[in-house]
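User: I've been trying to design a sequence by hand for this structure and keep getting stuck. Would you show me what you'd pick, starting by listing the structure so we're on the same page?

Assistant: Good idea, let's start from the same input. This is the structure you sent:
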């Protein structure tokens, strides 16, 4: 296995520096085992083992003898993610013991913290290298999935349009022996995916529905759907410059669904998997869909376009309708759907909606286990009144700013069969600024929790 960035194989020729991890509760006990001079050095620098802190330790004649890092929750990967950038370059090894779960969290956090997006420029510095024995194979696959999301979202639209998303999915299918299909351009109309076509028809880059199928019919069927708006101008209801600046990330839902699908396949979970990604560019042109138009959908529900900047839910409608026709045991969708979810929960916590309490509880429990935060929001159905249309079955938006994330989820639910177990994640998929382990740019959120839930589900199926 090729080691990810930030990791090195053990080699007798390497100079290894010891690395200590301490939390506030254990600091005094750790002090009691150290030489008095070292304890004095730490106290002189005010090191209190706060989460995210670090202090290099002096050796003889000005040499670097090691480092101590403060951590919080030992099972949270981000407790360790500051290390690769906070430490001086070189090779480091853990000094002391961590239990298996904490060691896995360290490995995952280290890999997340060592990440740089290097497609267009080299990394500004080499991260510190962890020499930690064998990298846990599942950790390696989870790390690859998280970094896959970051890379896909960070890639600008000229290199990550609908065709490029298709190429990513096709490559996954080839690697894992999955069946692959893509319905492109006017074929969408011929095969009854009119709402995907309506949103994407104005772009010179043809819209498409990407589909991947993997696994045995003997296993429980799970369908993953990801919103693939590769760039969102807002359409004729055009965004302002600030709102449009980062809209390469509007395919963040597709990035999550793609990465989760590959993770399921890489770990060979005992599931039957279908991946659906409606991929479009919401462009402005002579054939752009317009406010006031009534758009047909696969489900037969007519949609009045209140706002062309609420396009994600329009393309998801056809994908969710197809998913419902497949009658899976679970239907999960990811979408960078609303700014309203960010107003409610901020950038770090995805909003989870579900029509099934057991499914929601399982996802939230998994999120707690792997420290991948989410928060359940209500499908408050009286708010469907905000999507009333006087000429169609439903509108894709409303004139009120009330309950924007909830109404978007309710819109999606309209295209899911009533008996279908379904969960929707309104995800930001982005870090607005650099933080330890969370560089500015694309971010995987709710992905590790989803995998943990599916892994547990497969284990008891």
């Amino acid at each position: 296995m090729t080691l990810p960035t930030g990791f090195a194989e053990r080699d007798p020729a390497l100079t290894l520096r010891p690395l200590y991890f301490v939390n506030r509760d254990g600091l005094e006990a750790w002090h009691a085992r150290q030489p008095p001079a070292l304890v004095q050095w730490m106290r002189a620098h005010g090191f209190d083992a706060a989460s995210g802190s670090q202090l290099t330790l002096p050796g003889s004649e000005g040499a670097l003898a090691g480092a101590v890092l403060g951590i919080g929750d030992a099972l949270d990967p981000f407790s360790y993610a500051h290390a690769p950038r906070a430490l001086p370059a070189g090779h480091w090894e853990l000094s002391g013991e961590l239990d298996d779960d904490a060691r896995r969290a360290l490995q995952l956090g280290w890999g997340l913290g060592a990440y740089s997006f290097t497609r267009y420029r080299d990394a500004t510095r080499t991260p510190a290298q962890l020499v930690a024995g064998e990298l846990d194979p599942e950790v390696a696959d989870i790390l690859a999935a998280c970094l896959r999301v970051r890379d896909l979202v960070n890639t600008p639209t000229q290199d990550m349009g609908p065709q490029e998303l298709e190429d990513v999915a096709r490559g996954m299918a080839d690697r894992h022996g999955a069946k692959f299909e893509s319905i492109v351009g006017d074929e969408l109309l011929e095969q009854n995916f009119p709402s995907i076509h309506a949103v994407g028809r104005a772009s010179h880059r043809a819209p498409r529905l990407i589909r991947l199928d993997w696994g045995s019919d003997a296993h429980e069927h799970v369908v993953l759907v990801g919103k693939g708006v590769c760039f969102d101008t807002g359409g004729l209801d055009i965004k302002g410059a600030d709102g449009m600046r980062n809209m390469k990330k509007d395919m963040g839902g597709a990035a999550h669904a793609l990465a989760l699908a590959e993770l399921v396949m890489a770990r060979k979970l005992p599931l039957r998997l279908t991946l659906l990604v409606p991929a479009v560019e919401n462009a402005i042109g002579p054939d752009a869909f317009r406010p006031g138009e009534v758009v047909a959908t696969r489900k037969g529900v007519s949609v009045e376009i209140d706002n062309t900047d609420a396009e994600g839910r329009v393309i998801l409608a056809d994908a969710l309708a197809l998913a419902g026709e497949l009658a899976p045991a679970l239907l999960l969708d990811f979408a960078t759907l609303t700014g309203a979810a960010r107003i409610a929960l901020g950038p770090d916590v995805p909003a989870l909606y579900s029509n099934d309490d057991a499914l929601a509880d399982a996802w939230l429990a998994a999120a707690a286990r792997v420290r991948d935060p989410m928060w359940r929001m209500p499908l408050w159905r009286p708010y469907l009144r905000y999507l009333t249309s006087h000429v169609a079955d439903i509108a894709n938006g409303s004139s009120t700013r009330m309950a924007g994330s909830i109404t978007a989820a309710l819109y999606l639910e309209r295209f899911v069969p009533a008996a279908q177990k379904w969960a929707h994640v309104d995800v930001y998929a982005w870090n607005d600024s650099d933080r330890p382990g969370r560089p500015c740019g694309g971010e995987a959120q709710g992905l590790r929790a989803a995998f943990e839930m599916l892994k547990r589900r497969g284990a008891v199926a």
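That's my pick for every position. To get oriented when you compare it with your attempt: The chain has a mean pLDDT of 95. The chain has two domains: 16-134, 141-460.
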